[in-house]
Amino acid sequence: MKREILKALKDQKEGFVSGQEMSERLGVTRAAVWKHIKQLQEEGYEIEAISRKGYRLLKDPDHLDGDALELDRSSSVFGKKVYYFESVDSTNTMAKKLAAEGAVEGTVVIAEEQKAGKGRLGRSWESAKGAGIWLSIILRPAIKPLDAAKITQIAAAAVGTAIQKNTGYAIQIKWPNDILMDKKKICGILTEMSAELERINFIVVGIGVNVSQKEGDFPNELKHAASIESCTGKTVSRRSLVIEILKEFEELYFDFLHTGSIEKSIHICRKYSVTLGSKVKVIDKEKEIIAEAVDITEDGELLIRDESGGLKKIISGEVSVRGLYGYTPS
Ligand code: BT5
Fold first, then answer.
1. Per CATH, the architecture of 2-59 is what?
2. What is the pTM of this model?
């Protein structure tokens, strides 16, 4: 009911909506309407109440809970179900648990803070309270486990596009899973899956976006990290960015499922790549190779030319790619 009342207030963009009208439309008493209005006010919604005129929404706080996202969402499958937490260990871990219990495709897990946010290959992800978007999406694509890395490329293309559209500020993509601004990392993507030999049970795509951290908020060892606000100098609504991410991701994901190709995503990854054309250090489990990044293939692998001129394709998940003189490869 609270959600319906919020919707009625939001629908009434200018002016007031009367308590009588809401009570008739929603089939509850005016006292019940008032009770929910008070609850919304306690949650940070600024609502003006004037007798004989009704209620007017003055300020919509930047909430990320299911109700708030649901009302503004423009994607149809992604975010249909949202699990929102004040604090979790890791949204990916939570999403994997929910997926194992049967959560449907497109389910989103989002948290204000992660106590043990995860990066790839056992690394950790700094996820300060309220300062970013820490979210995971559950997917159930009928593809081979070998093709799962393609999902990371789709996510990188989608999140990069969403951030650029939302902020109007240039982004770069560092293959395979980083989004940068001014060549600093503002976002990382972690794709995990549960699969049998030939079949994927589910994939969880974790997306971490630094939104409002100030320079100096990051621990010393994260010298390549930045936030959208520290780069652009502008305030960003996390909710509108989440909505944009879900929309772009859903579009590119279903395009892949329908066409069998990630061409559209790869086009975006190539266009914004900081990796291509540069010398990179590819760090494998046992060894490091210095090579030139030549292309991103139609399947999302990085094509490199090693020092003896040999071409090799590398798959995300196996390796880290670094610049020779710093974090980015230029
Ligand atoms: C990643 O790994 O970049 C994937 C990060 C995914 C985070 C999301 S948040 C929601 C979901 N739930 C999770 O538990 N995780 C996902 P990788 O490429 O391995 O980069 C990790 C490295 O980035 C660390 O070793 C640090 O050097 C650096 N790092 C850690 N926290 C950072 C931050 N907030 N911003 C920028 N860099 C960071």
1. Orthogonal Bundle (1.10)
2. 0.93
